[in-house]
Design a protein that fits this description.
Helix content is 65%, strand content 0%. It contains 18 helices and no strands. The protein is an all-alpha fold.
Length: 359
């Protein structure tokens, strides 16, 4: 399916944007392939598999958690195609480390072969990967704008990893993984600074505007990109200004009195000239205060669609773009659960309606 999609995009010369979550996955996988860290993770996998396959060992582990006054937490197995599951596996075994070690000491001490130094590496590795885990979860959301967050998330990951690269108090294995991650981040995410769709979406998000750009030059490029786009948008004359219903009606002949004044105001507001009006809209929009980060930018734009009619249309086109393919993949997974061998008589219409209700 991926190969077919790329072929269609190339055939029709359509623009495309790579899945942000998949790019993060590839970056982190590169770091986890570092041999010294990979060998430690392999030891953790063996321990987790042992408790997953042995019901007696699992019962003993749960009993020891209860005796210690801890809530029962299950060990998590990682999945080769999802690096987040590796983080979950490491994070969970670190939480119940003492109980796991005490249980292994009684029932299978041969598996108790992770040294204190290696446990320390796992602890630092978990902290290093946390930002990737959190960003993957947030960028994969379905109900919020995600495309405008790409630049700020890319910068946040790079800055976070750089701290681990330069921290000499860390084990050299963690420094090495951090250096790999930083290099891969630069290779995969630097391109977003030059992507018109991304920079336009960023500027049109009232939560961020120019705050996400690394310098003034990048902001100027984004401003020029949005300006060119908005100048080409034409709207009906009746949509340019909000209508206000009042009981006031002008007396006869007032158009003669107010002719010069109305003409002057029309020129200042851009009148019917889409180029001037678009630039004025953009400047007015950028002069407004930033929206709170927890607010919904789509609601903000809907409330101001009459104030910024051209920018509103462009914002609708840009902010509707999802930064990842995760929502689509969730639909595919749900479709697989709905359309099974035992429900083979379901037609396309029924499946579509069922999926609509599930979503």
């Amino acid at each position: 399916a991926s190969t077919t999609s790329r072929h269609v995009l190339k055939l029709y010369n359509w623009r495309s944007l790579g899945c942000f979550a998949h790019s993060i996955n590839l970056v982190v996988e590169s770091g986890l392939k570092y041999e010294d860290v990979k060998s430690i993770i392999a030891k953790v996998k063996v321990i987790v598999q042992y408790f997953k396959q042995s019901s007696q060992a699992l019962i003993r582990l749960n009993d020891n958690q209860v005796k210690g006054g801890h809530p029962i937490l299950k060990l998590k197995q990682d999945c080769p195609t999802r690096w987040n599951s590796t983080y979950d596996m490491i994070n969970r075994i670190l939480k119940i480390k003492e109980v796991v070690l005490s249980t292994l000491a009684v029932i299978n001490n041969d598996l108790n072969n992770i040294t204190n130094y290696e446990w320390n590496i796992l602890d630092h590795l978990c902290k290093l990967l946390k930002i990737f885990y959190d960003i993957t979860n947030e960028i994969s959301c379905e109900k919020f704008v995600s495309i405008s967050k790409v630049l700020i998330f890319s910068k946040a990951m790079s800055n976070y990893v750089l701290v681990y690269c330069n921290d000499q108090s860390m084990p050299y294995e963690i420094n090495s993984v951090a250096n790999i991650l930083h290099t891969k981040l630069q290779q995969r995410f630097n391109q977003f600074d030059d992507n018109d769709v991304v920079i336009q979406s960023t500027l049109l998000d009232p939560q961020f505007k120019k705050q996400e750009f690394v310098n003034d030059r990048k902001h100027e490029i984004a401003y020029e990109s949005v300006s060119r786009k908005v100048q080409g948008i034409s709207i009906g004359k009746d949509s340019q200004e909000p209508e206000i219903n009042t009981p006031y009606s002008e007396p006869a002949g007032s158009e003669t009195i107010w002719k010069d004044f109305d003409s002057k105001v029309s020129k200042l507001s851009g009148g019917g000239h889409s180029t001037v009006a678009g630039i004025l809209e953009l400047d007015r929009y950028l002069a407004e205060l930033l929206l709170k980060r927890t607010a919904d930018p789509l609601v903000w734009w809907h409330e101001r669609k009459l104030l910024y009619p051209r920018l509103y249309l462009l914002a609708c086109r840009r902010l509707c773009i999802v930064a990842t393919s995760v929502p689509c993949e969730r639909i595919f997974s749900k479709a697989g659960l709905v359309l099974t061998d035992r429900r083979s008589r379901l037609n396309t219409d029924k499946v579509e309606k069922l999926l609509f209700y599930l979503i």
